[in-house]
Design brief:
The protein has 412 residues and is of the alpha/beta class. Helices cover 48% and strands 11% of the residues. Strands 1, 2, 3, 8 and 11 form a 5-stranded parallel β-sheet that branches. Strands 4-5-7-6-12 form a 5-stranded mixed β-sheet.
Length: 412
């Protein structure tokens, strides 16, 4: 039976405030709390809350036959807890239906796998613990930040005990193959690989309101007919996209909510079709083939590679400087400094430094607080300079403080 697998990415970063050279050593507060709060509340009002209500209604209307999956980053969860706890409750309502799966990822929405395996594994475990505490689910499927993927990541994820991993159905890895099957990483024994059908996903996420698109307007009936047709030679259509697509990227006036309200029943009108979560897909479908992906891919931009975050000298310099601080951060044993360092790892900080301002320019400008990538780099490096000073000050203070009596006795 052909299936549709919906996965939504829910993420908001902590944007940095305007931080100048003269703030270094004087001001240790890095984030623009007012802006972060305002954006979160705006997107919650326009997107998260109405879309969660819509999905809950459709799950009930379809008597549990409509299913979706989410990946909530640790940064957005923390912001929900601080400023919009009602959004957390609405996700919990969805979790209670038994038709919604929550996935694993890095807690800070970071690029840690590229730099520090220890940090990567810690963030994944921390994120899983938060998901289980909030939604009563232990994640069984992993999605890396920005769908970044290669063979080495798949090997580690299999060793960590996950059943499946998500990735982009990029042309450079699929070649003549279709993304509408389950695959297996070439170096894994059990892990399943679910690939995004980027053409159908982007019809919703990017082209839905484009009046110049030949298929405009996109109706639920039309999209369902494409899905039915495309799975004539496939088993599963993986529709992966940002959750902000609904109500934010595609505003309410575009008809995006009406589209999603009608879509489940249109898809289910075909007797051979159903909806499944990623874990259900992994457990019920055998791999069609093994895929070798030695080089990193992602879901970003036309190239589907890492150049949106690590494509120029500024980005590489910033991320190298950030992860050089790892030994000092861990040596402090300070949960507060560790969490600050992790928030500085969020991939958005490096995305803002991207100099690809051509075909993908509009995407890179969305919610970008900076006027240029050079401004983003300077601001970030000023923050990092102050954070490094803070670590040194913390280390000197710890070294100069008298040892506790028990420790002094043991050193005698």
């Amino acid at each position: 039976m052909p299936s549709v697998c919906f996965y939504f990415q829910v993420h908001q970063p902590y944007r940095l405030r305007h931080y100048t050279f003269f703030d270094i050593g004087r001001n240790h507060f890095y984030e623009d709390e007012d802006t972060n709060c305002d954006i979160l509340l705006k997107v919650a009002r326009k997107s998260y809350l109405p879309m969660n209500r819509l999905l809950l209604e459709q799950i009930r209307r379809c008597k549990g036959r409509f299913k979706v999956a989410f990946s909530l980053t640790g940064t957005v969860i923390t912001q929900f807890e601080a400023w919009a706890p009602e959004v957390i409750r609405s996700f919990q309502d969805l979790a209670e239906t038994g038709c919604v799966e929550f996935l694993s990822e890095t807690d800070a929405h970071s690029l840690a796998f590229q730099t520090s395996q220890e940090e990567f594994c810690e963030q994944v475990r921390a994120h899983d613990a938060r998901i289980e505490a909030l939604f009563g689910q232990k994640p069984r499927v992993f999605r890396n930040t920005e769908l970044i993927y290669n063979n080495d990541l798949a090997n580690l994820i299999e060793r960590m005990g996950y059943e499946a991993i998500l990735a982009e159905g990029a042309d450079q890895i699929l070649g003549w193959r279709s993304p509408n099957f389950v695959y297996q990483p070439s170096t894994c024994l059990d892990l399943k690989l679910l690939l995004k059908n980027y053409r159908l996903s982007d019809d919703i996420a990017f082209r839905f309101s484009n009046h110049e698109w030949p298929e405009f307007p996109l109706t639920a009936e039309k999209f369902a007919s494409w899905a039915h047709a495309s799975n004539a030679s496939g088993e599963v259509i993986n529709l992966f996209m940002d959750y902000e697509t609904f109500g934010e990227h595609q505003g309410e006036s575009t008809g995006i909510f009406q589209f999603m309200q009608a879509l489940p029943e249109c898809v289910l009108s075909h007797p051979d079709f159903d909806f499944r979560t990623p874990t259900e897909v992994a457990r019920t479908m055998a791999p069609m083939a093994r895929l070798d992906v030695p080089l990193f891919i992602s879901w970003a931009d036309a190239e589907r590679d890492l150049t949106a975050w690590l494509g120029n000298d500024m980005q590489n310099d910033a991320i190298e400087a950030l992860y050089k601080l790892e030994p000092q951060v861990r040596a402090t044993k300070s949960p507060e400094l560790l969490w600050t360092w992790r928030r500085l790892q969020t991939s958005d900080h490096f995305y803002y430094m991207c100099t690809k301002w051509f075909a993908d320019g509009d995407v890179h400008k969305y919610f970008n607080p900076y006027g240029s990538p050079y401004e983003a780099y300077i601001n970030y490096m000023n923050v990092l300079a102050d954070f490094e000073l803070t670590l040194k000050t913390y280390g000197h203070a710890a070294a100069s403080s008298p040892a506790p009596a028990s420790e002094a006795h043991s050193n005698a």
